[in-house]
Structure formats: C-alpha cells, structure tokens
Specification:
By secondary structure, the protein is mainly alpha-helical. The chain is built from 15 helices and no strands. The protein has a single domain, classed as Up-down Bundle (Growth Hormone, Chain: A), CATH 1.20.1250.20. The protein is globular and about 50 Å long.
C-alpha cells in the first residue's frame, strides 16, 4: 500500500492551499495577456517580448527545484504566503516603469515569488490527499488553473476599461489571501513524514536516486509546457495582429483554453486514479495530437470550442504527472514538484523565445503551426515512461 493511503484526505487544508495557488497564478497568467499592450507601449519586437516571457519562466519555474530542495530539508510554510505576496508586488509594479531592463527585473522578482510558493505548496498538499492522490492534488491544482484562466480576463478588463496604469490594483488579491490564511494557518500543520517505499523498488529509503523514468516523464512535461506556453503567448498575437480581432476577445480565447484545463483537471484526475496514471497520460497525449491542428482551420465560436476542448484534454494531465513524479521520488516531494511544475514549465518557456524568432522572421501563423507538431512527440515519449500503475 502507498504510504499516502494511510493519511487522511483533508478538504479544508487543500482548499486553503488552492486559494493561494489561485491568487499566485493570477499574476503569472496575466503577464502573457498584457504583452501586446506592453509591446506597443514600449515599441518592443516580438523577440524582446519573448525575452520577457522567458525571464518570467526562468525565474518562476526553472529554479523551482532549488526551492524544492530547501522545502525537502525542512518544511518552510512561510514560503506560501511570502511567495504569493512577492509575485503580486513584482507584477503590479510593472505599469510604473518605462525602462525595458527594469520591467524584466520586476518580472524576475514576481517569478521568484511564484517559484517560492509552488514546491512548498505542492509538498504540503501531498500530505492531505490521502488515498486519492490525483483527485486530491487536483483540488490544489484547480486553484492554479483558475488563476491562469482568470489572469488574462481580469488584466485585460482593467487595461481596456480603466487603463494600463490601473493594473497595480490587482495586488488586492494577494492581500485577501493573506487575510484568509491568517485565520486558518493552523490547518496547514504538517504531520511527521513516514518513511515511504519507492514505487519501483518497493524498498524503504531516501529515494534520492533519479530513475530513468523520471527523465522521460520530465521530457514529456517539457513538451506539454511548450504547447501550453506557446498557445497562451501567441494566441493573442495571432488573433490581434494577424486576424485583426478584438483584443478583449483574444484574451477570452486564452481563457477558454485555460478554463477547459480547469474542467479537465477536475474530471481527469479521478479517471486517472481509476484507470492508471500512465495510461491516462498516454491517451490524452494521443488525443491532443488529433485536436490541436484544428485551431488552424476554424474561426469564431468553433475556435473557442476547439481551444476549450484541447485545454481540457492537455491540461488534465498536469496533476497526474505531478503525482507520478512524487511517487518516483517519494522522499523528495519538493524536488519532484519543482521539476514537474517549475523546471519543465520554465524550460518550455524557451520555446516561447524560439517562437518569437519564428514570428519575427516568418510570421505568427508559422509559429502557431509549429506548435501543432509537439503533441506527437509528447505522445511518443509518454509511451516509454516506466511507471507502475498499481491503482489501475
């Protein structure tokens, strides 16, 4: 039996953590949505805009395993509220600045807050999932998915109706979370860690080894992250600059994609617990390969529908891959979470910069077409992951 099954499922703790996840990822999700306005305001090239996204991804994601190592050595719950607050402060100071280098620096500050929050958040959430590993983790992940989905809509509503200078008002979300957390802090008290069995060897120990399956799983998640970051960054450019569409509706398209992911996270995790985590990953990557190319051939309401369905399928694997990583590295939960949530997603941000180069030289449609080839590679990698689906 997985040692996680001996712990109880704590919905209250998971909801508190999910709220913090929602607020933190609002700021991360809002950045790509405001990039067209920031690009015009500062007269940036697509490549310069891509560097900003890359800086955000490196700071918020690539270095997450370092915070995970700190979290694994000793629980540091203060990283949860402090990380959320710093992420909001960095983002909300952007409208006050006009120098490109200063804006990149603020994006990095915000990213560091995001990087501090996630490994500790996922490690803490793991303690309250009980036997329903994927389903329990999906509650925490749901907050992040909602944050990513709401970020573009909220930021674009503020920019288009009030003006770019009103974006700092979004700091109120961080303060609301801190206020809620102050009343519920004791709920997050973490129990002593049991010595867990490695899912591949069945032996108790530190689990410090890095199994080959983890490398392959990491590669799969990096590809998924390239798709995710590429779509959220270039759907607005494609719709506004190429199709000459309404900027607000462009933000809504991103939100349709991300809200589809919210639905997928909630509905997919229980199915993954029932059918098997690897099996679910393989099937969804195959489905993604078939669905994504449709965005090049549909318009209007059908484009919204395709993006929503694709988001539901692709993002539903987010929680599943985290649980798989935590079972492959049972004594390094923070590092496992940092690799899946941080390093893989941040590395995927490199793809955004490369897409910027493609867009500058060949046009946004070419950049978008290149994204449609990635799910095939993700599917082939997922087939090679050695993972024991004991729950199947």
């Amino acid at each position: 039996m997985d040692p996680a099954e001996t712990r109880s499922f704590n919905l209250k703790a998971l909801l508190i953590l999910s709220l913090g996840h929602l607020v933190t990822d609002i700021y991360q999700g809002a950045l790509p949505a405001i990039m067209p306005f920031l690009k015009e305001r500062l007269s940036l090239t697509y490549s310069m805009a891509g560097v900003i996204i890359l800086a955000s991804n490196i700071a918020s994601s690539v270095i997450q395993p370092l915070f995970g190592m700190i979290s694994d050595k000793k629980e540091k719950p203060l990283l949860i509220p402090v990380g959320c607050l710093i992420s909001g402060i960095g983002f909300c100071l952007i409208p006050f600045m006009s120098q490109y280098a200063v804006i990149v620096s603020l994006v990095v500050v915000s990213g560091l807050g995001i990087a501090a929050f996630h490994p500790e958040g996922f490690r803490t959430a793991h303690r309250f999932t009980g036997a329903r590993a994927a389903a329990g983790m999906s509650i925490f992940s749901l907050g992040g998915n909602l944050g990513f989905a709401l970020g573009p809509v909220l930021s674009l509503l503020i920019v288009t109706r009030l003006g770019f200078s009103y974006l700092p008002g979004m700091i109120v979300f961080a303060f609301l979370f801190l206020a809620a957390l102050s009343f519920l802090w004791k709920t997050l008290a973490v129990p002593e860690r049991p010595e867990e069995e490695h899912p591949l060897t069945g032996q108790k120990g530190t689990g410090n080894g890095f199994p080959p399956a983890m490398v392959i799983l990491l590669g799969t998640v990096i590809i998924r992250s390239c798709i995710h970051a590429g779509l959220t960054s270039y759907i607005p450019f494609y719709y506004i600059d190429y199709l000459k569409g309404d900027p607000v509706y462009a933000g809504k398209l991103v939100s349709f994609f991300l809200l589809g992911g919210v639905v997928g996270t909630v509905t997919g995790a229980p199915l993954a617990d029932r059918w098997g985590h690897k099996r679910y990953l393989v099937v969804t990557m195959l489905m993604s390969s078939c669905i994504l190319p449709l965005i090049l051939f549909v318009k209007g309401i059908m484009l919204s529908a395709v993006l929503a369905v694709f988001g539901m399928v692709l993002i539903s694997t987010f929680t599943v891959t985290i649980v798989m990583a935590q079972r492959l590295l049972p004594k390094n939960l923070g590092v496992a979470s940092g690799l899946m949530v941080g390093f893989a997603i941040g590395t995927g941000g490199i793809g955004v910069m490369l897409l910027g180069v493609l867009a500058d030289n060949f046009g946004v449609p070419v950049a978008l077409k290149s994204i449609t080839l990635l799910p095939i590679a993700g599917f082939l990698l997922s087939l090679m992951v050695r993972y024991p689906d004991r729950q199947a």
